[in-house]
Amino acid sequence: MSVPTTDVFRADLFKGKVAFVTGGGSGICKGMTEALMRHGCDAVIVSRTQSKLDAAAKELEAATGRTCLPVAADVRNPQEVIAAVDKAMAKFGRIDILVAGAAGNFLAPAEHLSYRAFSSVIDIDLKGTFNTIKACIEPLKQSKGCVINVTATLQYAGTPMQSHAASAKNGVDALTKVMAMELGRYGIRVNGIAPGPIEGTEGITRLMPPNMTADYINTIPVRRLGTIGDIEHATVYLASEAGSYVTGTVLVVDGGSWMNQNTPMWMGLEMMLQQGPRSKAKM
Ligand code: COA
Ligand code: NAP
Q1: Which residues, by range, are in coiled-coil regions (predicted)?
Q2: N or C: which end of the chain has fewer CB within 10 A?
Q3: 119 CA to middle of ligand 1, Å?
């Protein structure tokens, strides 16, 4: 299990800095935000649901003593993202660390996936990541900041029922490399973090039925699910000076799980195809 990031990294690592985090109101990206704030950062968290963001911002401020600005925006809409960046700049005057983590996913075999459903996930995960990076380029040039794209490992194989998310995350990984090439000249580093199965998150609830957890854990080389704390450590490392010569790469934090393709998706494909479109998989 992971120890607190302050056991490993200096507590004032990000003092005076500001993080802009899409998806920061819940799950993994909320944990990433809390880790950055714990080390001295202020933060802006962005997603579609203002009430969720307001509650999360209060929790993050209480946990860290730093300031968190909650801003509602849909990453699919460039104008809303630009407006969120403007609000961040009006409040804090800088953005040093961009975490692009907003995403959507569900299990669906391609033959049961509507054209609109495929587009929705591409629009959120891939185009949303592009929209967010592009809107933050000027502030990041000023701060010589860094970008962390939250990706995944399911695109490393032909993971069943993930044509939409695998295509989107592969695109995100391509974007990580291209943006690292283009933005390095401004002192901006661009990397990705690819979480494996992280316990207690919306992602794992959607992709892995609870009755499959024990069998699945036996297929993971380190024999446990990941924690949000595991992703926090990777975030602090990449955003810190310790990562200053690291760009254009994806840090996989998955206990080695992607190397074993015995995932719930592989195990559940036949069942889901038999159950039909939009079935809640009871695998
Ligand atoms: N299986 C198959 N299709 C699905 C689906 C599912 N479980 N859930 C949604 N869809 C389809 C919808 O039917 C719709 O297609 P249609 O108009 O042809 O019927 C399309 O996806 C868009 O759905 P909608 O609910 O209108 O989209 P949205 O933009 O509000 O939501 C989602 C985006 C679908 C990705 C939604 O799951 C979401 O908001 N997720 C965010 C949280 C999340 O997924 N967290 C885990 C991150 S790993
Ligand atoms: P989560 O809590 O559902 O996080 C997704 C976030 O994205 C939510 O806060 C959601 O908030 C926001 N979002 C969705 N659509 C949006 C949109 N159109 N515009 C703006 N914000 C939007 O899920 P999670 O499991 O923690 O996943 C976080 C990240 O980790 C994702 O990038 C995911 O792909 C990645 N990941 C997770 C796992 C895992 O095991 N959980 C594994 C691999 C990768 P709103 O609904 O309020 O908009």
Answers
A1: none
A2: N
A3: 10
